[in-house]
Amino acid sequence: MNSDIGWSGLGISAALVAIALGISAWQRLGVERTLLWSSLRAAVQLVLVGVALHFILAPNRSLGWSWLWVGGMVVFASLTVWLRARDVPGVLPLALVAFSASLAVTLGVLLGLQVFPIDARTVVPLSGLIVGNSLAATVLVGRRVYEELRDKRPEVEARLALGQSAHDAAQPYVRSSIRSALIPQIETTKAVGIIFLPGAMTGLILAGADPLDAVRVQIAVMYVVLASVATTTSIVGLGVARRLFTSDHRAVQLTRKAD
Amino acid sequence: MDPRPLFEFEAVRVDGRTAAAPRLDAVSLTVPAHGITVVVGPSGAGKSTLLRVCNRLDVPDAGTVRLDGQDTATLDVLALRRRVGMVFQQPTPFPGTVRDNLQVAQPGLPDAEAAEILARCLLDPAFLDRPATELSGGEQQRVCLARTLATKPDVLLMDEPTSALDQPATLGLERLARRLADDDIPILWVSHDLAQMARIADHVIVLIGGRVAHVGEPATLTSTAPPAVRDFLGGAATAEERGEP
Predict the structure, then answer these.
(1) Which residue range(s) make up the domain with A236?
(2) Which stretches within A57-198 are classed as H helix?
């Protein structure tokens, strides 16, 4: 393929790291070590992934391997959410449910309606896009719902005291949290093509695909990301809110960590 | 004593963070169905907890709380909370206008009715369009009271409602409470301020260390109190002398 840069090409591109290193040394930024370490780490990680994908995507390989890969991705993403929002009660199982549900919905549409064929070459990268792009928003929503309901507890209790159900009392805070997690994604969707060329499209064009084909794939990808962000954030947002109330509509006592 | 009290507490215990120090312990008392009953006591005595078990924002770990003879644990909690309105220590205006605030309590509340409720709280109907969070503390607290009245409660719980207010706003809210009590909405009012108790109380419950230390009418409270309570109430006489010459 005309886009195969080969190992020698990769070596030459590594010279670009040397430019960054040179600038860091020249301006005494003191980031040479981390720069070198991150570049190496990224290369090793991606090569390992490449080897794994090479195995999974090999012709005639059982699709079971792809689904195993997707399952691993869901677990890894959920653990990441948990690590970044550890004080939020029940966030790990919620993230597992949210990522699984979002995959079921989006892959269900894309593969079920045969937008893409069911194949390791579609299942693995699409799942990666779906989970990867909803990760940050999921963390954000989990933390925000928790912090809003904790910090605005007097307001929430005033709502409960007016006879509102736990669900109704939490709703304004859950809604604003989900909105604030979704809006960056919507903004990105708006700016696409004008301000930046997104990854999937850039990759396809570099790999020699017709730009119009690349654009069609990219548009589908953007819609998928929007749907998956909306799904994961609403599941995590509503789920966290639920954990902060008792079944008889009382607010759970939350303690602020001394930090 | 009334034939039928408003609230009846029977051996109510509410556990604290540690089992060793319950927030309420063996509390048995009755709250009469008319007038203003003031709950006083030093801070940490369990006054707010006593109020919060009345509308089940807190639930007792032991014992029974009855409203009009019915065990509150058997009532629908959302309906109970609309019967038992509550105003909190800090004003808690919701974002939006005063109208929005009233409509949280009563969705679709018509303006005429909303204006009527505001009038009961001595607020002009023009307040309906004003952003609730931009009002003064005293106005916000009256909006919170109006919001609570919008659920048409049978009784009001007031949890130190004047602690964030200045003196004129405090006296204004007290007068308002008196009118509501005279209009037949009994009020259970928590206060740490003994001068305030002397101004508004028809009945007094003294809570010390999570237990009922004394119950009585304000006029004879000190003379009938046991020595430990008299020590606490000792502040009452001096505060009264200072505040009301």
Answers:
(1) 62-243
(2) 64-84, 91-112, 120-151, 153-161, 166-191
Nearest to A181 by CA among A123, A151, A225: A225
pLDDT at A100: 97
Q: How many domains are contained in chain A?
A: 2
Per-residue model confidence as pLDDT tens digits over B44-92: 899 999 999 999 999 999 999 999 999 999 999 999 999 999 999 999 9
User: How far is B147 from chain A, CA to nearest CA, in Å?
Assistant: 8
Q: Would you say residue A259 lies in a domain? A: no
A91 touches chain B (CB under 8 A): no
Residues 139-158 of chain B whose Cβ lies under 8 A from any Cβ of chain A: 144, 147-148, 151
For B25, the token pair is 């312990």
**Alpha-carbon separation of residue A115 from A70, A123, A126, A204, A239 (angstroms):** 19, 12, 12, 17, 31
Please report where in the chains the tokens 């591109």 appear, as a residue. A13
Interface test with B, best of A162, A164, A250, A253 (most B CBs within 10 A): A162
Architecture label for domain B7-92+155-243: 3-Layer(aba) Sandwich (3.40)
**Cα–Cα separations (whole angstroms), residue B244 to B161, B172, B199, B239, B240:** 21, 16, 10, 8, 5
